[in-house]
Design brief:
It is built from five helices and eight strands. It has one domain: TIM Barrel, CATH 3.20.20. With 167 residues, it is of the alpha/beta class. The protein has an eight-stranded mixed sheet with strand order 3-1-2-4-5-6-7-8.
Length: 167
């Protein structure tokens, strides 16, 4: 249950326990540092700096996740900007728990699965919420996303060939 020495830390800005806005049910949300999109109107611009927050070991994050007894969301910033630590953490979660993993990213699903390292993280997630936040498409009636262009994607079904959107 120990993370590898090269992929064993993630820069974390915040951890929210029991949140219901980052996916179905109560979740433990990990807010990571680093996002290159810099979307106008972003609700979390302090996450843009990839040197922000504090480095936390994947082992420590895993213990916090297990102790919280809730499903998990990776968000930020953008977890896909530095996927290696999240891959290690997601493998631990999948091997040792029954928790679901949601991941928010500004990248499009189609681009993620064409990038080998990012695809490895996608394959460990249950749901991806993709797409940059576009202020002109902001819609407060949407669940789990901020703008109409963003998609909630069932990863397992979508990897079988046809993109499967959730609502």
């Amino acid at each position: 249950m120990t993370a590898s020495s090269t992929n064993n830390t993630i820069r974390i800005l915040d951890i929210k326990y029991g949140t219901s806005v980052d996916g179905i049910g109560l979740r433990t949300s990990l807010y990571c540092a680093g996002c290159e999109n810099h979307c106008p109107g972003c609700h979390n611009p302090q996450s843009w700096n990839d040197q922000g927050g504090e480095p936390m070991s994947v082992d420590e994050l895993f213990r916090l996740i297990v102790d919280a007894d809730m499903n998990v969301t990776f968000t930020g910033g953008d977890p896909m900007l530095h996927p290696e630590g999240f891959i290690t953490l997601a493998k631990m979660i999948k091997q040792h728990t029954n928790k679901t993993i949601w991941c928010y990213t500004g990248y499009l699903f189609e681009d993620l699965i064409s990038h080998p390292i990012r695809k490895a993280l996608v394959e460990l997630c249950d749901v991806i919420v993709d797409g940059r936040y576009i202020e002109a498409e902001r819609d407060l009636s949407l669940h789990f996303r901020g703008s109409r262009n963003q998609r909630i994607i069932d990863v397992k079904k979508s990897l079988q060939g046809t993109l499967c959107l959730m609502d």
